[in-house]
Amino acid sequence: MTTEELLGRVPVFSDLSPAQLARLSQLVAPRTFAEGAVIIREGETDAALYMIVQGQVAVTKRTPTGAAFELARLAAPEIVGDMALLDGQSRSATVTALEPTECLVLDRPAFLATLHAEPALAIAMLPTLSQRIRLLEQRLLALSATEVHRSSLA
Protein backbone atom coordinates (compact mmCIF):
# COMPACT_ATOMS: atom_id res chain seq x y z
CA MET A 1 0.00 0.00 0.00
CA THR A 2 1.35 3.45 -0.89
CA THR A 3 1.84 6.23 1.64
CA GLU A 4 -1.01 8.15 -0.01
CA GLU A 5 -3.33 5.15 0.41
CA LEU A 6 -2.30 4.78 4.05
CA LEU A 7 -2.95 8.46 4.72
CA GLY A 8 -6.31 8.21 2.97
CA ARG A 9 -7.37 5.55 5.51
CA VAL A 10 -6.81 7.97 8.41
CA PRO A 11 -10.21 9.50 9.24
CA VAL A 12 -8.92 13.09 9.44
CA PHE A 13 -7.37 12.80 5.97
CA SER A 14 -9.95 10.60 4.22
CA ASP A 15 -11.72 13.53 2.52
CA LEU A 16 -8.55 14.95 0.99
CA SER A 17 -8.03 14.83 -2.76
CA PRO A 18 -5.38 12.55 -4.29
CA ALA A 19 -3.20 15.62 -4.92
CA GLN A 20 -3.50 16.72 -1.28
CA LEU A 21 -2.68 13.20 -0.08
CA ALA A 22 0.35 13.10 -2.38
CA ARG A 23 1.57 16.40 -0.97
CA LEU A 24 1.04 15.26 2.61
CA SER A 25 2.80 11.95 1.91
CA GLN A 26 5.99 13.87 1.11
CA LEU A 27 5.99 15.32 4.64
CA VAL A 28 5.71 12.11 6.67
CA ALA A 29 8.42 9.71 7.78
CA PRO A 30 7.87 6.06 8.76
CA ARG A 31 8.80 4.94 12.30
CA THR A 32 8.62 1.52 13.91
CA PHE A 33 8.18 0.87 17.64
CA ALA A 34 8.67 -2.40 19.52
CA GLU A 35 6.04 -3.71 21.93
CA GLY A 36 6.29 -1.73 25.15
CA ALA A 37 8.11 1.21 23.56
CA VAL A 38 7.07 4.69 24.65
CA ILE A 39 6.11 6.62 21.53
CA ILE A 40 5.14 9.84 23.32
CA ARG A 41 5.95 10.71 26.94
CA GLU A 42 3.71 13.00 28.98
CA GLY A 43 5.42 16.37 29.50
CA GLU A 44 7.78 16.15 26.50
CA THR A 45 7.89 19.13 24.16
CA ASP A 46 8.10 17.21 20.86
CA ALA A 47 5.02 18.09 18.77
CA ALA A 48 4.79 15.47 16.04
CA LEU A 49 1.62 13.69 14.94
CA TYR A 50 1.77 9.88 14.76
CA MET A 51 -0.54 8.06 12.35
CA ILE A 52 -0.85 4.41 13.31
CA VAL A 53 -0.38 2.24 10.24
CA GLN A 54 -0.16 -1.10 12.02
CA GLY A 55 -0.29 -2.12 15.67
CA GLN A 56 -2.06 -0.84 18.77
CA VAL A 57 -1.19 1.78 21.38
CA ALA A 58 -2.40 2.76 24.85
CA VAL A 59 -2.85 6.43 25.74
CA THR A 60 -2.36 6.97 29.48
CA LYS A 61 -2.23 9.91 31.84
CA ARG A 62 -0.85 10.12 35.37
CA THR A 63 -3.32 11.06 38.09
CA PRO A 64 -2.29 13.43 40.90
CA THR A 65 -1.56 10.34 43.03
CA GLY A 66 0.81 8.99 40.36
CA ALA A 67 -1.43 6.18 39.12
CA ALA A 68 -1.72 5.65 35.36
CA PHE A 69 -5.22 6.14 33.93
CA GLU A 70 -5.86 4.72 30.46
CA LEU A 71 -7.62 7.27 28.29
CA ALA A 72 -7.82 5.16 25.13
CA ARG A 73 -6.54 2.21 23.11
CA LEU A 74 -5.99 3.09 19.49
CA ALA A 75 -5.11 1.14 16.34
CA ALA A 76 -4.78 1.81 12.62
CA PRO A 77 -5.84 4.15 11.13
CA GLU A 78 -6.00 6.38 14.23
CA ILE A 79 -3.75 9.31 15.13
CA VAL A 80 -2.00 10.30 18.36
CA GLY A 81 -0.22 13.49 19.26
CA ASP A 82 -2.79 15.76 17.68
CA MET A 83 -3.16 18.08 20.70
CA ALA A 84 0.54 18.99 20.89
CA LEU A 85 0.67 19.21 17.11
CA LEU A 86 -2.11 21.79 17.12
CA ASP A 87 -1.18 23.91 20.15
CA GLY A 88 2.60 23.38 20.39
CA GLN A 89 2.36 22.69 24.12
CA SER A 90 3.96 19.79 25.98
CA ARG A 91 2.51 16.30 25.68
CA SER A 92 -0.61 15.77 27.77
CA ALA A 93 -0.39 11.96 27.91
CA THR A 94 1.93 9.02 27.36
CA VAL A 95 1.46 6.74 24.34
CA THR A 96 2.90 3.22 24.54
CA ALA A 97 3.00 0.51 21.87
CA LEU A 98 0.99 -2.52 23.02
CA GLU A 99 2.43 -4.59 20.18
CA PRO A 100 4.92 -3.93 17.37
CA THR A 101 3.62 -0.69 15.87
CA GLU A 102 4.32 1.17 12.64
CA CYS A 103 3.53 4.87 12.32
CA LEU A 104 3.84 7.71 9.85
CA VAL A 105 5.17 10.80 11.61
CA LEU A 106 4.34 14.40 10.70
CA ASP A 107 6.21 17.15 12.57
CA ARG A 108 4.59 20.43 13.60
CA PRO A 109 6.45 22.91 11.32
CA ALA A 110 5.67 20.84 8.21
CA PHE A 111 2.08 20.40 9.35
CA LEU A 112 1.53 24.12 9.95
CA ALA A 113 2.95 24.94 6.53
CA THR A 114 0.56 22.39 5.04
CA LEU A 115 -2.42 23.87 6.90
CA HIS A 116 -1.65 27.28 5.43
CA ALA A 117 -1.45 25.78 1.95
CA GLU A 118 -4.33 23.27 2.40
CA PRO A 119 -7.08 24.65 4.70
CA ALA A 120 -9.19 21.56 3.88
CA LEU A 121 -6.88 19.59 6.13
CA ALA A 122 -7.86 21.69 9.16
CA ILE A 123 -11.54 21.42 8.27
CA ALA A 124 -11.21 17.63 7.93
CA MET A 125 -9.66 17.34 11.40
CA LEU A 126 -12.42 19.17 13.28
CA PRO A 127 -15.02 16.34 13.43
CA THR A 128 -12.42 13.83 14.64
CA LEU A 129 -11.17 16.16 17.35
CA SER A 130 -14.73 16.90 18.42
CA GLN A 131 -15.53 13.18 18.56
CA ARG A 132 -12.52 12.61 20.84
CA ILE A 133 -13.77 15.30 23.22
CA ARG A 134 -17.23 13.70 23.25
CA LEU A 135 -15.78 10.26 24.01
CA LEU A 136 -13.71 11.70 26.85
CA GLU A 137 -16.80 13.41 28.26
CA GLN A 138 -18.65 10.09 28.19
CA ARG A 139 -15.79 8.32 29.98
CA LEU A 140 -15.60 11.07 32.60
CA LEU A 141 -19.36 10.93 33.13
CA ALA A 142 -19.22 7.14 33.54
CA LEU A 143 -16.31 7.48 35.96
CA SER A 144 -18.05 10.18 38.00
CA ALA A 145 -21.24 8.07 38.15
CA THR A 146 -19.15 5.19 39.52
CA GLU A 147 -17.56 7.49 42.11
CA VAL A 148 -20.96 8.90 43.15
CA HIS A 149 -22.27 5.34 43.50
CA ARG A 150 -19.24 4.34 45.63
CA SER A 151 -19.56 7.39 47.88
CA SER A 152 -23.29 6.75 48.41
CA LEU A 153 -22.46 3.22 49.57
CA ALA A 154 -19.89 4.43 52.09
Description:
By secondary structure, the chain is of the alpha+beta class. It has a single domain, classed as Jelly Rolls, CATH 2.60.120. Helix content is 43%, strand content 27%. The strands form two sheets. It has a four-stranded antiparallel β-sheet. Strands 2-7-4-5 form a four-stranded antiparallel β-sheet, with no helix packed on it. The chain is globular. The mean pLDDT is 87.
Record keyword descriptors for this entry.
single chain, alpha+beta, Jelly Rolls, 4-stranded antiparallel β-sheet, 5 helices, globular
Compressed to H and E, one letter per element, the order equals HHEEEEEEHEEHH
Major β-sheet, in short?
4 strands, antiparallel
**Total number of beta strands:** 8
Top-tier CATH class: Mainly Beta
Helix fraction by DSSP (H/I, runs of at least 4): 40-55%
Number of separate helices: 5
Q: What Rg is obtained from the alpha carbons, in whole angstroms?
A: 17 Å
Low-confidence stretches: none
Q: So, CATH architecture?
A: Sandwich
Residue-averaged pLDDT? 87
- Which term fits the overall shape? globular
Strand order of the largest sheet: 1-8-3-6
Strand content: 25-35%
